[in-house]
Specification:
2 domains, alpha/beta, 12 helices, Hypothetical Protein, Haloacid Dehalogenase-like Hydrolase, Chain: A, domain 2, 14 strands, about 30% helix, single chain, Rossmann fold, about 280 residues, six-stranded mixed β-sheet
Length: about 280
């Protein structure tokens, strides 16, 4: 069975250390789409931080997909239609904020195209705004301000503190919402059952594809579900060791065109095959 679709994490996977897509990787993905393959950009990011990437890869032209908020919102890049969306249960926003109130952790969410932060500031507070290119607003009382629906909460802080509070939240709220790291200083707090892997079956079904036809590439903990689900699960050389252990394949690093090498080896038909 041939591989017909590829799901790509962004930071540490699709983009290099300079947050750029290399020429080789871009060319490989565009050629794959010209040959009829599909591309999904799957990230914990807000979709605002994915629109330029989607445009660069010509997902709008070739009918690709944007999976934002770790699958909490899936968008058809060619039409802008939101195919599915899941909101974080509002009744747990205050308990999460109360749980981390004594720690130097910034609590973050999104109001339209603006990042909303609580009043805690640390070295990691503004990284999300820089990555996404979004405006931010700091509010004194986060739980009173956030009266609107949100797809996720993001906790930012020192890696050792993030590790500590990951365990606290997982143990206390297992089965109510999901908690996992997207990088050492970011903790994703998601609606229960919403992750990159869990959201794949419905999209594949819509496209008439089987999981065996899916390649998924990632580097971090929030990629593990889609790597484990895919017919070919790929971890980057720069990825976490836990992710490498569950992957079918470890490709080159994000600074050495690891994604391009996967596409070229497993998806592209050579000229002789096309002829």
């Amino acid at each position: 069975m041939s591989y017909e679709i590829i799901a790509l994490d962004v930071d540490g996977t699709l983009t290099n250390s300079r947050k750029e897509i290399t020429d080789r990787t871009r060319s490989a993905l565009i050629e794959a789409q010209r040959q009829g393959k599909k591309v999904i950009v799957a990230s914990g990011r807000h979709q605002f931080g994915l629109k330029d990437i989607a445009k660069e890869l010509m997902l709008d032209k070739f009918g690709g997909y944007i999976m934002a908020f770790n699958g909490g919102r899936i968008i058809d890049a060619s039409t802008g239609e939101v195919l599915s969306a899941r909101l974080f249960p509002h009744e747990y926003i205050k308990p999460v904020c109360d749980a981390v109130k004594d720690a130097n952790i910034t609590v973050i969410t999104y109001e339209g195209d603006t990042i909303i932060m609580n009043d805690k500031v640390n070295d990691y507070s503004y990284i999300e705004a820089k990555i996404l290119g979004m405006e931010y607003k700091q509010v004194e009382n986060f739980t009173e301000y956030v009266t609107f629906g949100v797809n996720k909460l993001l906790l930012a802080g020192e890696p050792s503190v993030i590790n500590e509070y990951e365990q606290i939240l997982v143990e206390k709220y297992k089965g109510y919402f999901d908690v996992f790291k997207s990088c050492p200083f970011f903790l994703e707090v998601m609606p229960f059952g919403v992750n990159k892997g869990a959201c794949m079956p419905a999209l594949l079904s819509k496209l008439g594809l089987a999981r065996e036809q899916l390649i998924a590439c990632g580097d971090s903990y929030n990629d593990m579900t889609m790597i484990g689900y895919a017919g070919l699960g790929v971890c980057m050389e720069n990825g976490e060791n836990d992710v490498k252990r569950i992957a079918d394949l470890v490709t080159d690093s994000n600074d050495n065109d690891g994604v391009a090498k996967v596409v070229e080896s497993y998806m592209l038909r050579r000229r002789a095959e096309i002829a």
